[in-house]
Amino acid sequence: MDGHAKYLLKKNNPLSFLEDKIKNTNTFLDFKNTISNNKKISLISEIKKASPSAGILVKNFNHLDIAKLYVDNGATCLSILTEEKNFLGKLDYIKDIKDNFKIPVLAKDFFIDPYQVVLSKSYGCDCILIIIAALDEKQADEIYAEALKHNLSVIVEVHNEKEADTALKYDQALIGINNRNLKTLDISINNTISMFEILKNHKGPLISESGIKDEKDAKYIYEKTGIKNFLIGESLLKSDNTAELMKRFTQIIQ
Question: H/E element holding 107?
Answer without folding.
Answer: strand 105-108
